[in-house]
Design goal:
2 domains, elongated, 44% helix, five-stranded antiparallel β-sheet
Length: 357
């Protein structure tokens, strides 16, 4: 005990700040240099640990639709940065000619027929291809996607992107991509079989899809030989008062596992692989970590007294929660300038250009 107390007394504690869009964490970093043991290379030990690490990595990515607390924190942090660095803009729809204000788009992608491939095959061959095309053709820079299972066992995706994408173009691209795995062909075959004797409604869908609307869909799709199923949904997130909470609800919710009737569908119905991700820049954005000088410490003390700042104190750290607008109001502050420079360095985001837009 005496030795432990001696070590504790001799440890050097260095004040540090971690700054993110809506929070600042204050904590002490411990300098273990004096007591840190020298690392020795052990080939046998390193091989064993390496194999274990790979196993754990695979296991952590097979969550069966469950979002861990740590994953929720990472997703919310990525969402904070996406919302912060995406500027509001006026967009004109080339099809309707209407102009409207736009910030981010919320996209949903589905499969039009029964899923016959495992989740990773669909992610690697379809979702990844769509993301590549969105970056190439629409200059999408930042995005977050989340995979979920529908009640019918099919996987579907929610995606947030920072650019406007015309609805019909999105549907055409997604349908073309999933046809590589024959999902449009299978949809066409299923629909022709179901309506082999003419229009046949689905009563189980009446609550959300009336008989009249089903008939209209039948007439429209039969004319184009069932080549363009409604596999996409896209809308602008603009008028919702608390965008962050609205989107976070969709991204971080956990699935309710449904009972699967057949063994052959069990592996497909249980979600496999990564359940969410984002572009590399957002993924690597961990927050600005700096050692505060007297000027920064004085600014933190002033910030703590602001009525809109919530302070959470713990024996080992303190966290300040606040809307980013509070930091914006003090553009001459050192905190604000340092964080803007961090955004430029990590996300190639220029605050001044964003305001001008």
């Amino acid at each position: 005990m005496a030795k432990a107390q001696q070590i504790k007394n001799e440890l050097l504690l260095i004040p540090k700040l971690s700054i993110n869009p809506n929070s600042i964490a204050l904590y002490n970093e411990v300098d273990w240099t004096v007591y840190k043991p020298e690392k020795k290379y052990n080939p046998e030990y390193n091989t064993v640990m390496s194999s274990k690490a790979e196993h754990l990595q695979d296991y952590s990515r097979t969550a069966e639709g469950k979002v861990s607390t740590q994953a929720k924190r990472k997703m919310n942090k990525a969402l904070d940065y996406l919302l912060l660095v995406t500027n509001q803009k006026t967009v004109t729809n080339n099809y309707t000619g209407r102009s409207f204000k736009f910030k981010i788009a919320f996209i949903t992608l589905t499969l039009p027929s029964k899923q016959i491939h495992d989740d990773n095959t669909i992610k690697n061959n379809c979702l990844n291809q769509l993301l590549i095309e969105l970056k190439k053709h629409y200059k999408v820079k930042n995005y977050i996607w989340r995979a979920e299972k529908q009640k019918n066992g099919n996987i579907h995706f929610h995606i947030l992107v920072d650019k406007f994408i015309p609805y019909q173009e999105l549907r055409d691209r997604w349908n073309r991509i999933i046809e590589k795995l024959n999902y449009i062909t299978n949809y066409r075959t299923e629909q022709k079989k179901w309506h082999s004797k003419g229009f046949k409604p689905r009563p189980e869908l009446y609550k959300t899809w009336s008989k009249k609307k089903q008939l209209q869909a039948y007439l429209r799709n039969s004319k184009i030989h069932w080549n363009s199923p409604n596999t996409t949904d896209i809308h602008s997130i603009q008028k919702i008062r608390n965008i962050k909470n609205y989107i976070s609800k969709y991204l971080t919710k956990n699935e309710i596992n449904n009972k699967i009737q057949t063994d052959t569908q069990t592996d497909i119905a249980q979600q496999k692989g990564r359940i969410w991700s984002c572009n590399q820049e957002l993924s690597k954005t961990k927050g600005l970590k700096i050692y505060p000088d007297n000027e920064l410490q004085d600014e933190i003390k002033i910030l703590q007294k602001h009525p809109k700042v919530k302070v959470y104190q713990h024996p080992y750290f303190t966290i300040l929660y606040f809307p980013f607008s509070i930091l914006e109001m003090k553009k001459d502050s050192k905190l604000f300038k340092l964080f803007c420079q961090y955004l430029i360095d990590s996300l190639n985001f220029n605050y001044q250009l964003n305001i001008a837009a």
